[in-house]
Amino acid sequence: MTQTQPQTATPIDPGAADLAAAAARAAAARKAEDVCVYDLHVVSSFCDAFIVCHGTNRRQVTAIAQGVIDDLRARGVRPTGVEGMEAGRWVLIDFGEIIVHVFDEPMRGFYDLDGLWGDAPRIAVDLTPPSAAAPA
Q1: pLDDT tens digits, residue range 77-136?
Q2: Which of 26, 21, 27, 55 is nearest to 126 (CA)?
Q3: Closest to 108 in 3D by CA, of 69, 63, 51
Q4: Cβ of 30: how many Cβ atoms within 10 Å?
Q5: What is the helix (H) or strand (E) element at residue 22, kind and residue range?
Q6: How far is CA 68 from CA 49, 65, 83, 132, in A?
Q7: Over the stretch 35-45, which tens digit does the pLDDT of each residue have?
Q8: Which is it for the CA torsion 123, 128, 129, 135, positive or negative?
């Protein structure tokens, strides 16, 4: 009888991880709160990562979402879909391999994506803007 080796999870695609980190930094640069990046590639087939964050009011939620779209567009990446921008309560930005969720604070608690995907590992991202991270 042969023993099988336990399977190890394959690491997230480096391009998806880089895109997720860029989206998280873009959100943090617009003062998004509690920015979390979840590695979903081993628990889901529809995307590699979720970015979940919130703003303190609807105007900030739309500014965060637009900032993420603008920053990733500057990298040559366009969203395949954007939902909720008009209402500013929960903006979902689908970039294919990553999905960004920008909530207002009450909606984040109500939908609790952090609890729903809490079993997925988090990706550590340095949210310091590149220009601020370099010594002067």
Answers
A1: 999 999 999 999 999 999 999 999 999 999 999 989 888 888 888 888 888 866 655 554
A2: 21
A3: 51
A4: 20
A5: helix 14-29
A6: 15, 5, 14, 18
A7: 999 988 876 77
A8: negative
Residue 116 is predicted with a pLDDT of 86
CATH superfamily of 37-125: Beta Polymerase, domain 2 (3.30.460.10)
CA 38/CA 117 separation, integer angstroms = 8
What does the domain layout of the chain look like in residue ranges?
37-125
Which residues does 131 contact at the CB level (< 8 Å), separation at least 6? none
Core vs surface per residue 51-81: b (16+ CB within 10 A) or e: bbbbbeeeebbbbbbbbbbebbeeeebebee
Confidence band for 9, pLDDT divided at 50, 70 and 90: low
Q: What is the pTM of this model?
A: 0.85
